[in-house]
Design brief:
single chain, 82 residues, 2 domains, two-stranded antiparallel ribbon, elongated, Carnitine O-palmitoyltransferase 2, mitochondrial-like, acyltransferase activity
């Protein structure tokens, strides 16, 4: 709650020169600290492209993640399927 009260007390949440830029939580129906009018994909072209991991690496990570959740038989079946 302290963070929220700090956000309400700061005037720069309104953004300089853009009256509709960022709105305080008290001005909205949803519980956000702030709301931006900048579209979500606005900066997408400037982001670096991520590499696609090798399928083998993805399968190994999947098998490692599910190992604690499965019994031995289910684990063997899962490894055989992959």
């Amino acid at each position: 709650m302290a963070l929220l009260s700090m956000a309400r007390s700061r005037l720069y949440w309104k953004t300089v020169g853009q009256p509709e830029g960022i709105k305080l939580e008290q001005e909205m129906d949803r519980p956000f600290v702030h709301w931006s009018t900048i579209p979500i994909k606005h900066f997408q072209p400037s982001l670096p492209r991520l590499r696609i991991p090798k399928l083998e690496d993805t399968i190994n990570r999947y098998l490692a993640a599910q190992k604690p959740l499965l019994n031995e038989e289910e684990d063997r079946n899962s490894e055989k399927t992959c």
